[in-house]
């Protein structure tokens, strides 16, 4: 499989943890809520829980002509209590007008670097409803549903979700 070519643009992109750039939280909340509406307070609580270990929320940003930072994408990484060597990518969203330009791929590459090289995790899990082809191009493989909420053996068996995983290079 070939990966899509990088976006054709001169814009500088940065992927940064939201806890280092709290001034971007309102933009991030608006982006996430454009895809999955929830209360401002719930989103704020989730983003403010971001830290160096887990959970961590990343944003992919660029600057406009006025040197203002613009949030183009977001990803949230959550711990899996039953598997300390793995992480669950809870959400990935790219602003509607920038989809199909390689933004999601850039964000996921940085997420993977963080998980595999900084946190030294062995596996990344995610679930998707409609982006299986996107994640497959990034090397994710279909897997069984996992328990992301605790150590009990009960699995999340949502019929809409497709579960995928990627193993890091050790």
TrEMBL record:
GO terms for cellular component: cytoplasm. Transmembrane segments: none annotated. InterPro entries: Acyl_CoA_acyltransferase, GNAT_dom, NAA80. Residues 13-169 form the N-acetyltransferase domain. CDD domains: NAT_SF. One of its GO terms (molecular function) is N-acetyltransferase activity. This is N-acetyltransferase domain-containing protein. It comes from Anopheles christyi. The lineage of its organism: Eukaryota, Metazoa, Ecdysozoa, Arthropoda, Hexapoda.
